[in-house]
Amino acid sequence: MGSVESGAESGATALDTRLAGRLAELRTERGWSLDDLAGRTGASRSTLSRLERVELSPTAVLLGRLCAAYGLTMSQLLAEVESEPPLVVRAGRQEVWRDESVGFTRRSVSPPHPGLRGELVEGVLGPGGDIAYDGPPVAGLEQHIWVLEGALEVTEGGRVHELAAGDCLRFRLWGRSRFRCPGAEPVRYALLIVLP
Q1: Which of 46, 50, 71, 130 could form a disulfide with 55 if both were Cys (CB 3.0 to 4.6 A apart)?
Q2: pTM tops 0.85
Q3: Which residues contact 132 (CB under 8 A, 6 or more apart)?
Protein backbone atom coordinates (compact mmCIF):
# COMPACT_ATOMS: atom_id res chain seq x y z
CA MET A 1 0.00 0.00 0.00
CA GLY A 2 1.47 3.38 -1.05
CA SER A 3 1.77 6.42 1.16
CA VAL A 4 -0.82 9.19 1.26
CA GLU A 5 1.31 11.38 -0.96
CA SER A 6 3.00 9.09 -3.44
CA GLY A 7 0.89 7.28 -5.95
CA ALA A 8 1.93 4.79 -8.56
CA GLU A 9 5.33 5.07 -10.17
CA SER A 10 4.82 6.77 -13.46
CA GLY A 11 3.89 4.82 -16.50
CA ALA A 12 2.69 8.31 -17.38
CA THR A 13 -0.48 8.72 -19.35
CA ALA A 14 -1.20 11.81 -21.42
CA LEU A 15 -3.52 13.00 -18.62
CA ASP A 16 -0.73 12.54 -16.03
CA THR A 17 1.59 14.63 -18.19
CA ARG A 18 -0.96 17.44 -18.63
CA LEU A 19 -1.83 17.34 -14.91
CA ALA A 20 1.84 17.55 -13.89
CA GLY A 21 2.38 20.46 -16.27
CA ARG A 22 -0.64 22.34 -14.94
CA LEU A 23 0.38 21.77 -11.31
CA ALA A 24 3.86 23.15 -12.09
CA GLU A 25 2.26 26.16 -13.82
CA LEU A 26 0.01 26.86 -10.82
CA ARG A 27 2.99 26.82 -8.45
CA THR A 28 5.04 29.08 -10.74
CA GLU A 29 2.11 31.50 -11.24
CA ARG A 30 1.98 32.00 -7.48
CA GLY A 31 5.73 32.40 -7.15
CA TRP A 32 5.99 29.46 -4.74
CA SER A 33 9.04 27.26 -4.38
CA LEU A 34 8.65 23.51 -3.91
CA ASP A 35 9.40 24.11 -0.20
CA ASP A 36 6.57 26.68 -0.03
CA LEU A 37 4.16 24.20 -1.59
CA ALA A 38 5.36 21.41 0.71
CA GLY A 39 4.56 23.63 3.70
CA ARG A 40 1.06 24.33 2.36
CA THR A 41 0.20 20.71 1.55
CA GLY A 42 2.12 18.60 4.07
CA ALA A 43 3.66 16.65 1.17
CA SER A 44 7.42 16.27 0.89
CA ARG A 45 9.41 18.47 -1.45
CA SER A 46 10.74 15.32 -3.12
CA THR A 47 7.25 13.98 -3.83
CA LEU A 48 6.12 17.31 -5.29
CA SER A 49 9.19 17.50 -7.48
CA ARG A 50 8.68 13.95 -8.75
CA LEU A 51 5.02 14.71 -9.38
CA GLU A 52 5.86 17.77 -11.51
CA ARG A 53 8.46 15.74 -13.44
CA VAL A 54 5.80 13.07 -14.15
CA GLU A 55 7.76 10.43 -12.23
CA LEU A 56 4.71 9.48 -10.15
CA SER A 57 0.95 9.92 -10.13
CA PRO A 58 -0.67 11.69 -7.17
CA THR A 59 -3.01 9.93 -4.81
CA ALA A 60 -6.51 11.34 -4.41
CA VAL A 61 -5.51 12.65 -0.98
CA LEU A 62 -2.46 14.50 -2.35
CA LEU A 63 -4.46 15.84 -5.26
CA GLY A 64 -7.06 17.07 -2.76
CA ARG A 65 -4.33 18.83 -0.74
CA LEU A 66 -2.92 20.44 -3.88
CA CYS A 67 -6.37 21.63 -4.95
CA ALA A 68 -6.94 23.15 -1.51
CA ALA A 69 -3.58 24.96 -1.69
CA TYR A 70 -4.47 26.40 -5.11
CA GLY A 71 -8.08 27.22 -4.22
CA LEU A 72 -9.53 24.92 -6.88
CA THR A 73 -12.01 22.10 -6.74
CA MET A 74 -10.78 18.81 -8.13
CA SER A 75 -13.35 19.15 -10.92
CA GLN A 76 -11.94 22.55 -11.87
CA LEU A 77 -8.38 21.26 -11.94
CA LEU A 78 -9.27 18.18 -13.96
CA ALA A 79 -11.36 20.24 -16.40
CA GLU A 80 -8.27 22.37 -17.03
CA VAL A 81 -6.31 19.30 -18.12
CA GLU A 82 -9.00 17.23 -19.82
CA SER A 83 -8.22 15.82 -23.21
CA GLU A 84 -7.75 18.08 -26.15
CA PRO A 85 -10.90 19.69 -27.53
CA PRO A 86 -12.33 18.15 -30.67
CA LEU A 87 -10.62 19.50 -33.76
CA VAL A 88 -13.89 19.75 -35.68
CA VAL A 89 -17.07 21.23 -34.21
CA ARG A 90 -19.80 20.02 -36.55
CA ALA A 91 -22.54 22.49 -37.45
CA GLY A 92 -25.18 20.32 -35.79
CA ARG A 93 -23.26 20.42 -32.48
CA GLN A 94 -22.94 24.23 -32.37
CA GLU A 95 -25.26 25.58 -29.69
CA VAL A 96 -27.69 28.29 -30.80
CA TRP A 97 -29.29 30.76 -28.38
CA ARG A 98 -31.92 33.34 -29.26
CA ASP A 99 -33.13 36.53 -27.64
CA GLU A 100 -36.37 37.23 -29.46
CA SER A 101 -36.90 40.52 -27.60
CA VAL A 102 -34.08 42.15 -29.62
CA GLY A 103 -34.01 39.81 -32.61
CA PHE A 104 -30.64 38.31 -31.72
CA THR A 105 -29.32 34.85 -32.55
CA ARG A 106 -25.98 33.65 -31.19
CA ARG A 107 -24.30 30.51 -32.58
CA SER A 108 -21.32 29.12 -30.64
CA VAL A 109 -19.21 28.09 -33.65
CA SER A 110 -16.09 27.23 -31.62
CA PRO A 111 -17.17 26.99 -27.97
CA PRO A 112 -14.92 27.74 -25.02
CA HIS A 113 -12.70 24.95 -23.70
CA PRO A 114 -10.36 24.97 -20.69
CA GLY A 115 -7.39 24.20 -22.95
CA LEU A 116 -8.08 27.06 -25.37
CA ARG A 117 -8.09 30.86 -24.95
CA GLY A 118 -10.28 31.77 -27.92
CA GLU A 119 -13.93 31.35 -28.82
CA LEU A 120 -15.71 32.01 -32.12
CA VAL A 121 -19.33 33.18 -32.22
CA GLU A 122 -21.66 34.00 -35.10
CA GLY A 123 -24.15 36.74 -34.28
CA VAL A 124 -27.24 37.78 -36.23
CA LEU A 125 -29.01 40.94 -35.09
CA GLY A 126 -32.29 41.97 -36.67
CA PRO A 127 -33.09 45.47 -38.02
CA GLY A 128 -33.20 47.96 -35.15
CA GLY A 129 -31.80 45.37 -32.74
CA ASP A 130 -29.85 46.97 -29.91
CA ILE A 131 -27.88 45.17 -27.19
CA ALA A 132 -25.98 47.01 -24.44
CA TYR A 133 -23.54 45.27 -22.08
CA ASP A 134 -22.51 46.79 -18.74
CA GLY A 135 -19.00 45.37 -19.02
CA PRO A 136 -17.01 42.32 -20.10
CA PRO A 137 -17.06 39.14 -18.02
CA VAL A 138 -13.25 39.45 -17.87
CA ALA A 139 -11.52 42.86 -17.97
CA GLY A 140 -9.32 43.30 -21.02
CA LEU A 141 -11.18 40.71 -23.07
CA GLU A 142 -9.92 40.82 -26.66
CA GLN A 143 -12.59 40.97 -29.37
CA HIS A 144 -12.43 40.87 -33.16
CA ILE A 145 -15.72 41.61 -34.94
CA TRP A 146 -15.93 40.81 -38.65
CA VAL A 147 -19.14 41.87 -40.39
CA LEU A 148 -20.22 39.22 -42.90
CA GLU A 149 -23.51 40.75 -44.14
CA GLY A 150 -25.30 44.03 -43.42
CA ALA A 151 -24.24 46.93 -41.21
CA LEU A 152 -23.30 46.99 -37.53
CA GLU A 153 -22.73 49.83 -35.11
CA VAL A 154 -20.45 48.95 -32.19
CA THR A 155 -19.79 51.25 -29.25
CA GLU A 156 -16.81 50.52 -26.99
CA GLY A 157 -14.72 52.81 -24.83
CA GLY A 158 -17.12 55.65 -25.60
CA ARG A 159 -16.33 55.41 -29.34
CA VAL A 160 -18.92 54.54 -31.98
CA HIS A 161 -17.74 52.40 -34.89
CA GLU A 162 -19.90 52.02 -38.02
CA LEU A 163 -19.07 48.79 -39.82
CA ALA A 164 -20.14 47.48 -43.23
CA ALA A 165 -19.82 44.01 -44.75
CA GLY A 166 -16.17 42.98 -44.84
CA ASP A 167 -15.05 45.43 -42.11
CA CYS A 168 -13.29 44.12 -39.01
CA LEU A 169 -13.11 45.93 -35.66
CA ARG A 170 -10.66 44.73 -33.02
CA PHE A 171 -10.12 45.96 -29.48
CA ARG A 172 -9.68 44.97 -25.85
CA LEU A 173 -12.79 45.58 -23.79
CA TRP A 174 -12.56 47.20 -20.36
CA GLY A 175 -16.00 48.75 -19.93
CA ARG A 176 -19.43 49.05 -21.47
CA SER A 177 -20.21 48.04 -25.05
CA ARG A 178 -23.17 48.16 -27.40
CA PHE A 179 -24.12 46.34 -30.60
CA ARG A 180 -26.80 47.90 -32.84
CA CYS A 181 -28.17 47.03 -36.27
CA PRO A 182 -28.89 50.40 -37.92
CA GLY A 183 -29.94 49.00 -41.30
CA ALA A 184 -33.22 47.75 -42.75
CA GLU A 185 -31.73 44.24 -43.10
CA PRO A 186 -30.27 41.96 -40.40
CA VAL A 187 -26.55 42.06 -39.74
CA ARG A 188 -24.52 38.84 -39.55
CA TYR A 189 -21.07 38.94 -38.01
CA ALA A 190 -18.34 36.73 -36.63
CA LEU A 191 -17.02 37.54 -33.18
CA LEU A 192 -13.67 36.15 -32.03
CA ILE A 193 -13.21 36.37 -28.27
CA VAL A 194 -9.77 35.83 -26.73
CA LEU A 195 -9.15 35.67 -22.99
CA PRO A 196 -6.37 37.95 -21.72
Answers
A1: 50
A2: no
A3: 176, 177, 178
CB atoms within 10 A of CB 188: 18
Distance CA 127, CA 184 (A): 5
CA distances to 91, 92, 98, 125, 134 from 105, rounded to whole Å, are 15, 15, 4, 7, 19
- What is d(CA 64, CA 76) in angstroms, rounded to the nearest whole number? 12
E strand segments, the chain? 96-99, 104-110, 118-125, 130-133, 141-149, 151-156, 159-164, 168-173, 177-180, 187-194
Sheet holding 130-133, edge to edge: 130-133, 177-180, 151-156, 159-164
Burial (CB < 10 A; 0-12, 13-18, 19+), residue 9, is exposed
Query: What angle do the packed helices 45-52 and 14-29 form, to 10 degrees?
Result: 120
* Residues contacting 33, CB < 8 A, separation 6+: none
Amino acid, single-letter form, for residue 166: G
